[in-house]
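Next comes a concrete protein, fold included:
___
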Amino acid sequence: MENNEQLIAQCEAKAQQWLAPSFDAKTQEAVKAMLSSDDKTELIESFYKDLEFGTGGLRGIMGAGSNRMNIYTVGLATQGFANYLRKNFAGLNEISVVVCHDCRNNSRLFAETVANVFSANGIKVYLFDDMRPTPECSFAIRYLKCQAGVNVTASHNPKEYNGYKAYWEDGAQVLSPHDTGIIDEVNKVKISDVNFSGNKDLINIIGEEIDKVYLDRIKEICIDPEVIKRQKDLKIVYTPLHGTGMTLIPRSLKLWGFENVHCVKEQMVKSGDFPTVVSPNPENGEALTLALRDAKEIDADIVMASDPDADRVGMACKNDKGEWILINGNQTCLLFLYYIITNRKAKGLLKKGDFIVKTIVTTEVIRKIADKQGIEMRDCYTGFKWIASEIAKSEGKQQYIGGGEESYGFLAEDFVRDKDAVSACSLLAEICAYAKDQGKTLYDILMDIYIEYGFSREFTVNVVKPGKSGADEIKQMMTDFRNNPPQELGGSKVVVWKDYQTLEQLEADGSKSKLDMPTTSNVLQWFCEDGTKVSVRPSGTEPKIKFYIEVKDNTMKCSNCYGRCMEGAETKIEAIKKSLNL
């Protein structure tokens, strides 16, 4: 009780600061209502901490308070970012940044706030004229030779959220030491230090001229244009889920040569309320309801969807019974990398030193493909900034040809340094054309992979723990797993334990080794005798802890075995969940 009273007192003291003249009347009214309410839950949630840069940058529920997304937290972050840029690039005559935003409520307001604060600090701003996909922000930073960028987006989060992704001059989200450097500067800033009065002379509006160059570059990653010419009438159903994908993905598909693209009419409407879906997340089957409706009506070959900021792609295809099924994120990454490797090889485009990247929680079947095809595969942490780091590390020495993660993100090119649904949708259509050219479907290609490289079933468990109490619970869960690591999972003995926070690997025989990673991360992994892999990590952008389960079956000999393998996998997954008390 005493601790709770102390927390309330701390939050009240912090909230009082938001009643100063520096804050507008609407904000002050909202803060006064929290202070006067008998229920202090909203006060605590709004003020118990400041929004921090995580794996996806700054992200939170919109509203008044230091732990909320509003023009003040955005202004504080931008002032700190501006201060850091001016120190880091003190020798430059001119510092420039790109500012982009998605379709969400307040996104334009926040983007203009960012532009105003940067320009008021003497920094040149390239501000997009309207919403644009996240990957185009990354592209523009590199293309315009800027020192940094900001994208206002909360990706696929619920409509109450918004966010702020900070990018560096390489077009990737900010990594160490710049992430902590920016945070240090932000923490020094008081609201009275923020210069909100923008300099219009330093704000340049950009749009179509960047769109055209970006789309032309994406066209260059096409592997087999001839197969597209033969299958130009491939029936494609696409939905942007009310988001930024509507600006460029239909254009890109047309540019690649696809002439039969059907866009879901109700969802080609820009809206931060996402009125036609429960959640604007292409990972969820519910979000594809209208797209599947249209697909059945026209007997489509493929359904594809991008999330609101068009960096992730979700998809559905018909199985061997003609039923529409969802392709999960691991399968998505698997299909992309299988196609890129095998068809670049068939076309004589594969070169010595070419490499692919996946995250440590993504399916290990990709490693089997890379090993068999003699392609270097690299593992990295969750978050596309780590894939971007691998690209940057080998720039000019080795060629990156593709990489992805289980959370539906893929990047087929190196001139963008974030996941890209624009290029992914275009390449996905090419893969479907390639399959159809052989009398197959995307499902058939997936079955071919499983038959050759072994069946794998992945399942993610998200344990949501909102607020401060939730954050404390998640922290304790990770502590408990470290103090008492599992010895078996689902009946199979654990033979390797990896702790990326200590960078230690422990084998069943007691031997220890160091993990070769660029930095530490709060992730645990366990590998079992039967090939099972389980990874656990707290989310860097949402109030939850995630469990990634992967189970194997190497007995799949034909597509008829798929059902049996799936049933066995589901039973195994339930046993693993029970072992972990999930």
Q: What stands out?
A: The chain has a mean pLDDT of 95.
